[in-house]
Amino acid sequence: MSHHRQGREPVPKSTGRGDPRVKPTARQQQLETLIGLLGFFTIAAFVTTVVVEVQGKPALTEAMVLAAFALATFFAIQAWRRS
């Protein structure tokens, strides 16, 4: 014999991203993928810039690439938050 509690439904666990029953839209998923890729290349550009600086070589190009990736990542995160 099963006991059914009246008036109470199990509450799904939250993942910290709002209502767990709401699936992200395709645009949100694309932005999350873009953020992941940009984040990876931003970290790679950061490591490259640090290595070149530590070696004492000119690192203007590497710093410009790092700045471009950092800005692109920032704007992608802002777009994700708005969606």
Report on this structure.
- With 83 residues, the protein is mainly alpha-helical.
- It has a domain at 26-82.
- The protein contains 2 helices and no strands.
- Helix 1 (26-54) runs antiparallel to helix 2 (60-82).
- The longest helix is centred in the middle third of the chain and has 29 residues, at 26-54.
Which key phrases capture this entry?
single chain, 83 residues, mainly alpha
Q: Please state the CA-atom Rg, rounded to the nearest Å.
A: 22 Å
First CA to last CA: what distance? 47 Å
Helix count?
2
- What general form does the structure show? elongated
Mean pLDDT across the residues is: 85
Order of helices and strands: HH
The amount of helix comes to: 55-70%
Oligomer: single chain
What share of the residues does DSSP label as strand, in percent?
under 5%
How does the major sheet shape up? none
- Counting helices, strands and paired strands, the structural category is mainly alpha
Could you list the spans in which at least 5 consecutive residues all have pLDDT below 50?
A: none
Number of strands: 0
Write the layout of secondary structure elements.
Layout: H1 26-54, H2 60-82
Helix pairs in contact: 1-2
